[in-house]
From TrEMBL:
Protein name per UniProt: histidine kinase
Annotated EC: 2.7.13.3
Protein's cellular compartments: Membrane
Entry membrane topology: Multi-pass membrane protein
Catalytic activity: ATP + protein L-histidine = ADP + protein N-phospho-L-histidine
Top-rank EC class of the record's enzyme: transferase
Organism: Archaeoglobus fulgidus
Origin organism lineage: Archaea, Methanobacteriati, Methanobacteriota, Archaeoglobi, Archaeoglobales
Domain annotation PAS: ranges: 1-37
Gene Ontology molecular function: ATP binding; phosphorelay response regulator activity; protein histidine kinase activity; protein kinase activator activity
Domain annotation Histidine kinase: ranges: 130-323
Gene Ontology BP terms: osmosensory signaling via phosphorelay pathway
SUPFAM superfamilies hit by this protein: ATPase domain of HSP90 chaperone/DNA topoisomerase II/histidine kinase (SSF55874), PYP-like sensor domain (PAS domain) (SSF55785)
Length: 323
């Protein structure tokens, strides 16, 4: 190795290891020796002591050497004594093509924080699930008893109490949908036609006539069901709609789903605020979470949602097509 090049690598703030195309280590700077515990020159990089997965490292080097790599960065687990730490390794090919510079970065605090956050999220999900289950049970019991009493006692307050209990159930369902929005995992291929068919069945029973045209397969997850549910609930409850048209069409690399109802439309004075968290308006105002959930879900998919009036309310959702 050229002396000036070696001095450059030694002066770098990161730990650096140089390997040839066969994975043999030809150089490591002092920072790398501190992290790896000793001079590892002449070893195969997957033979480094403490490396959790030598096979993973071997595959990484082979993919680099073959030119078929899909990424030039990997995270590896190392053990030094009783301590476990995580290194992000980024590969850069040498100009003469003889090998690769591997830059090591200790990301242990990041990995540990991420795992701790996930553990806390798991606990919160469990607590929320238990609370929802217990509260729904209590609400069901309360509603059943009030309905029984309504046969014996005639009071204008009974319908008010039943309506309040129904609103509690709705809030719990919105909380569940919002949790799905934040915690759903990898995006998969989903046919919008299947989503529309399943969701609209419930609304048809409630008297909402739904016309459907077009279909497309998009990248989404199970939270897409809550998106359409919220839009139709908005049309039925707030827009007082009797009919909804759902049209799906492809535009370039995207699918556009347009949900158009025949209701009273969106109030023009607040139309720019309807996707804000907690925003409510009018006598039929709900929790202020429904359209906020819609916006957050679609943004997580890398899509867009917008609303306008054209007779009734119109919602246009743009989603990435599955390739």
């Amino acid at each position: 190795m050229d002396e000036s090049f070696g001095l450059l690598l030694e002066s770098m703030p990161e730990a650096v290891v140089v390997v040839n195309r066969e994975g043999e280590i030809t150089y490591c700077n002092s920072k790398a020796r501190r992290i790896l515990g000793k001079d590892v020159v002449s070893l195969k990089v997957w033979e480094i002591e403490g490396l959790e997965s030598g096979e993973k490292m071997r595959d990484f080097i082979k993919s680099l050497a073959s030119g078929r790599y899909t990424k030039k960065r990997e995270v590896f687990e190392f053990t030094a004594g009783r301590k476990i730490f995580y290194l992000s390794i980024y590969a850069t090919e040498l100009l003469d093509g003889s090998g690769f510079i591997l830059t090591f970065r200790d990301i242990t605090p990041i990995v540990e924080s991420s795992r701790r956050i996930e553990e806390l999220n798991d606990v919160l999900r469990l607590i929320n699930k238990l609370l929802r289950h217990d509260i729904l049970n209590k609400v069901t019991i309360a509603r059943a008893n009030i309905e029984i009493l309504s046969d014996e006692i005639k009071s204008e307050r009974i319908p008010v109490a039943l309506e309040a209990l129904d609103e509690v159930v709705e809030l719990i369902e919105r909380a569940r949908a919002f949790e799905q929005t934040l915690t759903s995992g990898e995006l998969v291929e989903i046919r919008l036609g299947d989503v529309v068919k399943e969701v609209t069945e419930d609304f048809s029973v409630r008297g909402l006539k739904v016309r459907v045209e077009g279909d497309a397969t998009v990248l989404a997850d199970k939270a897409i069901y809550s998106v359409l549910t919220n839009l139709l609930e908005n049309s039925l409850k707030h827009g007082k709609s009797t009919e909804v048209e759902i049209r799906v069409e492809k535009r370039g690399n995207f699918a556009v789903m347009v949900v158009r109802d025949d209701g009273k439309g969106l109030p023009e004075e607040v139309i720019d605020r309807i996707f804000e968290e907690g925003f409510t308006h009018g006598d039929s105002a709900g929790s202020g979470l429904g359209l906020y959930i819609v916006k957050k879900v679609i943004e997580r998919y890398g899509g867009e949602v917008r609303a306008c009036n054209d007779g009734g309310a119109v919602f246009e959702i743009k989603l990435k097509l599955a390739t």
